[in-house]
Amino acid sequence: xxxxxxxxxxxxxxxxxxxxxxxxxxxxxxxxxxxxxxxxxxxxxxxxxxxxxxxxxxxxxxxxxxxxxxxxxxxxxxxxxxxxxxxxxxxxxxxxxxxxxxxxxxxxxxxxxxxxxxxxxxxxxxxxxxxxxxxxxxxxxx
Length: 142
Hints:
Strand order of the largest sheet: 2-3-4-5-6-8
Structural class: alpha+beta
Helix content: 10-25%
CATH class: Alpha Beta
Number of strands: 8
CATH superfamily: endopeptidase domain like (from Nostoc punctiforme)
Mean pLDDT: 94
Distance between the termini: 9 Å
Number of helices: 3
Order of helices and strands: HHEEEEEEEEH
Strand content: 25-35%
Number of domains: 1
């Protein structure tokens, strides 16, 4: 299961290619911000652990430095609903995050670099994200 078709199905964002390329591809087509918003896409840089980057849908904003995301394939082959992500950047700009690691049931140790948030138009609500997740997961498995 891949995070890209899952995120596309949940948000309706018409981007393709590796998730690392979504930030550049969104320029001029979608709003971009360094502040989390419900329904936005958090876009991760490519790295050794994320060779194609990663995208996750913000399902809830808890505080200026904590959100919940719904995403596919963070834990291999699985969809994770409402998983914590925390901003650990020095400037509080969401350029560096730690992500919940489901196999251990706690925050991961690794700090991941991110570009920021892409704003779908219109952004899906938390209820819509959670309601669509099972169908999105099934469609990307086919």
